[in-house]
């Protein structure tokens, strides 16, 4: 039997890590304790019971409603009040709730307040239904998007990758290894625009190199 190579060991370790990160979709996860978050008739997130209980204190903004497919059960959804007609109105209403929760120091995630928003939408190609403070998106289970840029070069006939190390003061995953640069897709930014921004901020990539920036795929 052939010996397992270092590459194979590393690949297996990455696969195990991926399975751990994706455990939310597996039976027995906390998904069963979450309820849909809707804007209009579009589901945009999932809210855990712990978060749900606090949001019920804001009935002018969030409305509890029964799901069509489960009216015989106790599984309800939380819907943003339909009185807010535009994305700007929805964003403002939710922002006030989040600021209040932040001041009350209820959720750990809000300690990492960024003053940066992510667009909330049902699918990536949809128009945004609202913009939400980045640190709060995990509370609502909304899908957030980001760009990841890998840099490589050839040295002594070998393909070499640039590996970064995160700052010790980062709010998330400090001092750990990372790809060359990456960042969340903030409200209003196009993918390429975001990629260039992150390359300049995190890796000081000169402008003349961006003609070689290539999009290679999408992972969800």
TrEMBL record:
<dbReference type="InterPro" id="IPR031804">
    <property type="entry name" value="DUF4743"/>
</dbReference>
<protein>
    <submittedName>
        <fullName>Nudix hydrolase 20, chloroplastic</fullName>
    </submittedName>
</protein>
<keyword id="KW-0378">Hydrolase</keyword>
<feature type="domain" description="DUF4743">
    <location>
        <begin position="14"/>
        <end position="142"/>
    </location>
</feature>
<dbReference type="InterPro" id="IPR015797">
    <property type="entry name" value="NUDIX_hydrolase-like_dom_sf"/>
</dbReference>
<dbReference type="GO" id="GO:0044715">
    <property type="term" value="F:8-oxo-dGDP phosphatase activity"/>
</dbReference>
<dbReference type="Pfam" id="PF15916">
    <property type="entry name" value="DUF4743"/>
</dbReference>
